[in-house]
């Protein structure tokens, strides 16, 4: 790696001619590096490491830093969909903004760029910090889309201790303090237990419809429900998050069989169904609610009413053994 590329890498992948000159690089040396493909010229006076993400290059070409939903996935966060516009943070007094593709003068409002004007805009790097990114997300996106991102940042579940919590509780509280009243109310609906976009979307849509839900609820046998409706209706979203990990297909079905055996009702939908065909999903939920499948009752008693978990497990294993012997 050349010293010039190393310097640009140390500044977040973006550097100005003035920065390079201050570090001792001459105009000729910069031109040679560009010709060799070691660095890339974005526009007059601004260079980058050619290996950085395209969105980072585009934001720098505009004259700012990548932010909001455009930066979320580069921070390792989940997003509901591909943003139609490039979100860029620029200083409040910035002038001569450029189009991200052509570097020609940018006319605002633009169909291609959403500008986030900030009096204290970040001065270095190609992308804003995680906290600034989330601040823009909560103030810019519709509530459900914003919560998908924020839930991802706050995710912390006990059975996946290896996954770091990107936004810890103290940072979350600091974020709440910076938000507007309306954005804070939305942010306070976020949880640490959501493991996928589908789970967040389903939780929000069910809650909005008045359905009583609890996320990542512990169940009998040491299992957890993505979403528990009422007392006993387990709602799960497949096709994203932990349900796509190696071995998840078999583990999920073993868990479902056990939960049904001890008395839980179960509904499972694909990520696409939840996102794109919600009416069908909610119709199924509504039919279960009308039948009272979400509540323990005389017809559907909780397993602890007649036997403890160990007995239920032995009974299930005995039934499996008898079926196997009969066959």
Automatic annotation (TrEMBL):
Coiled coil: none
Start and end residues of each DUF559 domain: 201-289
InterPro entries tied to this protein: AbiEi_N, DUF559, Restrct_endonuc-II-like
Domain AbiEi antitoxin N-terminal: 3-48
Top-level taxon in the UniProt lineage: Bacteria
Entry-linked Pfam families: AbiEi_4, DUF559
This protein's name: Uncharacterized protein
Taxonomy of the source species: Bacteria, Bacillati, Actinomycetota, Actinomycetes, Micrococcales
């Amino acid at each position: 790696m050349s010293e010039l590329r190393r310097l640009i890498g140390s500044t977040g992948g973006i550097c100005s001619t003035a920065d390079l000159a201050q570090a001792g690089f001459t105009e000729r040396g910069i031109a040679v590096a560009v010709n060799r493909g070691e660095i890339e010229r974005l526009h007059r006076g601004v260079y980058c490491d050619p290996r950085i993400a395209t969105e980072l290059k585009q934001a720098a070409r505009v004259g700012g830093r990548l932010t909001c939903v455009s930066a979320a996935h580069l921070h390792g966060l989940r997003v509901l969909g591909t943003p139609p516009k490039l979100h860029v943070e620029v200083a409040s007094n910035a002038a001569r903004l450029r189009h991200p593709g052509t570097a020609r003068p940018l006319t605002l409002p633009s169909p291609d760029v959403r500008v986030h004007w900030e009096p204290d805009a970040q001065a270095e790097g190609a992308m804003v910090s995680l906290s600034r990114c989330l601040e823009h997300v909560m103030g810019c996106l519709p509530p459900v889309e914003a919560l998908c991102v924020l839930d991802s940042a706050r995710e912390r579940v006990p059975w996946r201790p290896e996954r770091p919590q990107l936004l810890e509780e103290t940072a979350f509280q600091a974020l709440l303090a910076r938000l507007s009243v309306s954005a804070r109310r939305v942010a306070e609906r976020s949880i640490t237990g959501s493991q996928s976009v589908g789970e967040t979307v389903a939780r929000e849509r069910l809650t909005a419809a008045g359905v009583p839900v609890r996320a990542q609820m512990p169940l009998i046998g040491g299992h957890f429900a993505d979403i528990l409706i009422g007392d006993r209706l387990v709602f799960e979203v497949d096709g994203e998050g932990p349900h796509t990990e190696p071995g998840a297909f078999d583990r999920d079905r073993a868990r479902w069989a056990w939960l049904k055996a001890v008395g839980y009702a179960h509904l499972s939908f694909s990520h696409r169904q939840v996102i794109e065909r919600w009416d069908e999903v909610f119709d199924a939920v509504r039919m279960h609610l009308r039948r009272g499948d979400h509540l323990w009752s005389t017809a559907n008693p909780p397993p602890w009413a007649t036997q403890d978990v160990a007995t239920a497990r032995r009974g299930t294993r005995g039934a499996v053994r008898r079926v196997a012997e009969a066959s």
